[in-house]
Amino acid sequence: MAFLPSEAPPPRRRALVYTALGCALVGAALFLVVRTAGRERQTAPRCPPGLVAVETRCCGAGQTLVSSHCSGTPTSCAAGMHAIAGVRGGCVVNERRVSFTGGVLTIAHSDWEPRAEVQPRAVRIGPFEIDAHEVTLDRWQRCVTAGGCRSQPLTEPGQPVASVTPAEALQFCRFFGGRLPTADEWLFAAAGPKSRRFPWGETGLVCRRVVFGLAEGPCADGAGTPEVVGSRPDGRTPEGLFDMAGNVAEWTLEAPSKQSRGRPEFAARGGSYRSKVATELKSWSLEMTDRPAPHIGFRCAYSSE
Predict the structure, then answer these.
(1) Could you report the per-residue pLDDT of 119-128, keeping only the tens digit for each?
(2) What is the CA radius of gyration of the chain?
(3) The whole model's pTM is what?
(4) Of 1, 83, 117, 204, which one has the fewest beta carbons inside 10 Å?
(5) CA-to-CA distance for 78 and 137, rounded, in angstroms?
(6) Is 52 helix (H, G, I), strand (E, B) or coil?
């Protein structure tokens, strides 16, 4: 049935037309978001200024890749890094800590998550400090030289320490006057008082923000090692913490469970360079294990006086 210009469609027909138009607009918007995100993931530079992409890695300018490691003296590094000369040289982050005055950590269901995935709770956190970066091999070597830690191959000084047990990580932190962060402290540092979905915010899981998907995509293929610590500054938290998602997962001290009968438990939080999907990289993602692995490292926390 046709309508004359002066006539209006019946209310039911009008509602159907508006619904169809609304669905079309929503579909178009979603298509643009997905296409933009896909383009950014594939075409945006993975490495920050001062580092260059060499196969699966971000190396200092002038370095070459040898057995998945950046080798040689870099002629430039990213902001917040310094260069170490030599065959086993590289770009290393400048160490610092970030202070938190404490607050309430609130984890609750949201429109993003299935109800069974997040355990709702609110916990008060006291003041503490935490390393802005994952512990590097360069820093670990200082503990080795002083006789406080076991030796590790110094393949690349700016990479994170990995394949250490929670006990070894705790021993290192104590050597520098710290300890492993509790699960609640780590979560508060990663998610902030507003419980961010990702350490940097609610959306934007792309290769320029996170060291992930390097082993089997989507950011690269064939990576066998993590990245230089601090090589994704676009993914830092508003408070200034780097690599809270991706690169290496990080040891945390968990609250004892009934099954542990009061014994300390540990988890690896934050996902790693091997992670491929968002569920492995959200602020509250974790891997319950106490076994050392090439994709698990750590950072230290410090009690505030």
Answers:
(1) 677 889 999 9
(2) 23
(3) 0.83
(4) 1
(5) 18
(6) strand
